Amino acid sequence: MLDAKILLLAVALDILLGEMPTDFHPVVGMGKALSFGMRFAPSNDRLIQFIYGAFVVIIVLGTFAASAFALLWFTRAMNTWVYVLVAAVMLKSCFSLRALARAANAVRVHVVKQDLASGRKALHALVSRDTAELDGTQIIGAAVESVAENTCDSFVAPIFFFLLFGVPGAMAYRVANTADAMFGYHGATEFLGKFPARLDDALNYIPARVTGMLLVCSSFISRNHGRQAWRMMWRDHARTESPNAGWPMSAVAGSLGVRLEKKGLYRLGDDNYTLTPQAIDKSVQLMALTALLWLASGLAIKGGVLAAIA
Fold first, then answer.
1. What range defines the domain where residue 278 resides?
2. Rounded to whole angstroms, how far apart are CA atoms 100 and 127?
3. Res 186: pLDDT
4. Residue 205 pLDDT more than 80?
5. Where are the beta strands (DSSP E) in the chain?
6. Are 73 and 83 in contact (CB under 8 A)?
7. Tens-place pLDDT, residues 161-176
8. Do the Cβ atoms of 139 and 189 come closer than 8 Å?
9. CA 107 – CA 122 distance, rounded (Å)
10. Where residue 296 falls among pLDDT bands split at 50, 70, 90?
11. Based on the structure, what is the number of domains in the chain?
C-alpha cells in the first residue's frame, strides 16, 4: 500500500507541478556528477576509456541509489507520512510526463504557425540529433518519435524499477539512462560511453517491450489503428540501431499510420497518412493512456505477487 501511495502521489506531483527547480533536481545533479567524473578520462587507450567510463557510472549510480536508500530509511523511522512524501518527490524526479507533453506541444505550436526555425529550436528539448536541415514533416516526425521512445525512458522504465527495487532502483535507472544520453554516442569519446550505452540497453530490454505492447493496447482503446500498431511493431522493431527504441516507435508509427524516418538510419511504418501537427497530439494522447495502463497494471501485478507470497 505504501508503494501505491508513493507512486500515485509522485504522478500527481508531476501532473500538477511539473519539473522540480533545476538547482534541486536530482537528475541535474546526476549529470553534473557524471560530467565531473568524465573530465579526468584518458583520451587514448580504448580499453582504459571503457573501464574508466564504467567506473564513473558505477560510482555515481551507487552513490545516488545508496543516498536514496539512506534518506528513506531515516524518514521512515521518523514518520510514515514524511517517508511517503519524500519518496514521492524523489520518485517524481526520475520520470516526466507533463514536461514531455509540454515540449512536444511547443514543437507543434511552432509548426502550426509555420515558424520552422522556432520549431527546430524547440525540438532540441526532445532530441539530440542535428535539427538544422529538418523540414516541417521531419520536425513533426522527430517529435512523435521522441514522445514514443520517452514513453519508455521517461515513465515506464523508471516505474518498472521502482516496482522492483523501490525508489533507489528508479534512481539507479535514471543515472544509467542519463549517462547513456550524455556519453553513449559515436565519436572521439565513444568508448567512454560504451558501458553506459550497453547498461541502458540491458535495463530497458523489458520496459521497451512492455511499452510497445501497452502502446498497442492504447491504440485499440483510443480507436487509432490498433492492428496496424501490432503489425508494424513486430515488422519494424529491429530496424533501429538501438535494440529497444524500435519497439515503442514502430508501435506509434503503426498506430498513426505514418512513416517515422531518420535519414540514413531507419524507416518505421508505412506512409498511409501524411505527418501533420495532429500526429504530435495523438502521440501525446497515446503516451498518457499508456502511462495510465502501466500504472494500473503495474500496481495490480505487484499487489497480486505480494498477495500470493503472503
1. 2-309
2. 11
3. 65
4. yes
5. 260-262, 266-268
6. no
7. 999 999 999 999 999 9
8. no
9. 6
10. very high
11. 1
